[in-house]
Each structure stands twice: as C-alpha cells, then as structure tokens.
Amino acid sequence: MRLYLTALKPTDSVTDGFLPAARALGCEVTVLTDRPERHPGAVGCDVRDPRALIDAIEHLGRPDAIFSNSDHLQAETALAADYFGLPGKDWRACAAAKNKFLMRRRLRQAGVEEVYSVRLGPGDPVPERVPYPVVVKPREGVASEDVVLVEDDLAGAVADISKRRPGEALVVEEYLDGPLRTLETLGDDSGLRVLGGFATTLGPLPHFVEERLDWAPDGPHEHVLAALRALGVGFGACHTEYVLTSRGPRIVEVNYRVIGDHCDFLLAEVLGVPLFEWILRVHLGDRAPAPPPATAYGSAVSLVADRPGTVKEAPGHESAETGGVRLWHRPLRAVGDVISLTHTNRDYLGVVRAVGPDRERVDAAIAGYRAAKPWVVE
C-alpha cells in the first residue's frame, strides 16, 4: 500500500505518531512537503496548491491513500484524494471548518446555533456597535495566535492585530463564557464514532492559552454532532472545541484533524488503542473501529513560560512510572533558548502527560514531577 502524507513543518504527531503507524500497517510512505529539508526522505512539492499536489502524486506513482494532519492542508489533501477516487474528507467541509467565518455562517444557516460574528477583510471599517465583550481572531488562525478578548476598544485591537498580520481577514465574535470542552471523533462513510473529550483549562484573559486538558468524556454530544453534520464533517479524525454557556453549548472551532499538543498520544493511552493506526486505516478504506470504554484517567499539562528570558534549566525527554501512574515529559525548548512571551501556545516550554487509575493520583504524579524537575527561565 502506498500512502502519501502532506505536511508543512515537522510535528510530533506525524513523526512519532502517524509515520510509525503507517509502517506498522505495511505502508510505503512518501511525505510531500514544501519544506523537504526538514523531513528526511521527503519529496518537495507546493502542497498548498492541489494542482501541484495531484501532479506530483501522479508522477510518483498511484496512491492507495492521501492523508494530512496539518490544519492548513486539509482542503488541498481532500481534493487530491477525490481526484484519485480515494477515501477522504469533503473539501467543502474542510474549508468551512478551517474558515471561522464560514463555520459560523453554516451553523446559523442550518439552525444549529447562532453566535454573533462579523468578518473584517483588510481595510474594512470596524463596526461601531458590537455586543461587548467580543473576541477578535484571525479568520484561519491556529495556536491561539492573535486571539484576544476585547472589552471596549475594538478598533484598537483590530489595528494592533492587523499590524502583525497585514492583508489577513479577521473575525469578531461574541465572547462565549463558560467551561471549555472538547469532543474527539473518528468517522468513516457509515458515520461518526465519539472517542471522548477533555475539559480545558485556559490561562488568564484577555488571551486564550490552553494550559491543561483533563479527560472528561461525558458532555452534550448531540449538539456538537449536529454542528459537525451541518458542516459536512464526518470522515476521519476531528477535534472540536465548544463552550458550555448559560444558553447551552456553543461551538468555538472545529479542527478537522486529530487533537494536538500531545493530547493525541494521551487519547490513545486513555482508550488503550492504536489511535494513529485507526485514523490511517479509515483513509485506506477500512471501517473505523468502535471505541472501547476508557481504561484510565489522563491529563496533559502544558508548561507555559511566565516571563521572558533565557532557559537556564530544563528536564529532558523522559518517562516514568510511579504509584500506578505513567508519566511522560516532552521538552519543546532547550537550555539556552531565549523566550519572548507571545501569549499563545508558542510560549510552551514542554508538555507533561500522565495516565493513571484516577485524577487524584494523576494530579499527584504531575505535581511531584514539576516540583522535582522545574523549568528555570531567567
């Protein structure tokens, strides 16, 4: 079986998750990327252009599957898979999920939910009357970059973000107040399977940095699934974020790929399944297996820099087991790195994930590790 995987920058999800899974399934893998120097053995290609992607694949050899875990390449990869008659996502659903304005418009038109939202193209006038507080975000942004809560000066916030993102469209939408949750799904042509979900802890406002995710599989799944159906999302993996507001659940964003920031590994460990293989098998034409009940409790804690400076001390890439809890630490920075605070996920120093019988023991293991092996930034 020949699998083509499209990618931009290297990620742990691909390097440590999908590529080993593809090899375990017996696939011959070709990575197509616009950064071949960063992916060993990869083929250079303008992966943001579906025409170039199709041309490159036709030249290299007939595919059995075309897959991407990149936020930015879902529509292009879906178009290429459709061209070759392979299982894949609906490119329209990929476009609607990625574009936060299209997502809001589609959900409103389908009668699923209505959230105040305005698209601001480059140079568009800033609306004078908005239902403060509001959130301003890039229309197709990722990693909480330039997402900010605005209490009274919308024009100032838009001008500030536009300086850093000239020529990009923004979205202004009402602030959704309440607990933030996720729903993780995997689907095939027969429908969606709910894998579970997480409760998300954010850092201090006005920014939206995710600091911790804790296993929380129960929730208002029907509303979220109705939203996914309205968007046409179903095939493959999807990570959806929503808020439990006083008016009911409301979608924050739909990421049409598996959950990131090492929570994909955590999800696999909590369920006790080869998650990355499951996802690839769907793209190879197999049915998505029925997920089993969770075998454990899990948490992922992002270690966020709280000051600018230079990393003086840092724990390494390591794992441990204590008191029935398995724990992993993945450094994202190194000693000597200079830290400049961005108030985004780019401020992560490392990630600790832990799986155990219950939250009490998982919390204790994470706290013990952090106390024994701190990151020091001065």
TrEMBL record:
Keywords: ATP-binding, Ligase, Nucleotide-binding
Listed InterPro entries: ATP-dep_AA_Ligase, ATP-grasp
Residues covered by the ATP-grasp domain: 104-284
Keyword Nucleotide-binding: yes
Gene3D superfamilies tied to this protein: ATP-grasp fold, B domain
Source domain of life: Bacteria
MF term (GO), any: ATP binding
Keyword Transcription regulation: no
Protein's UniProt name: Siderophore biosynthesis protein
Phylogenetic placement of the source organism: Bacteria, Bacillati, Actinomycetota, Actinomycetes, Streptosporangiales
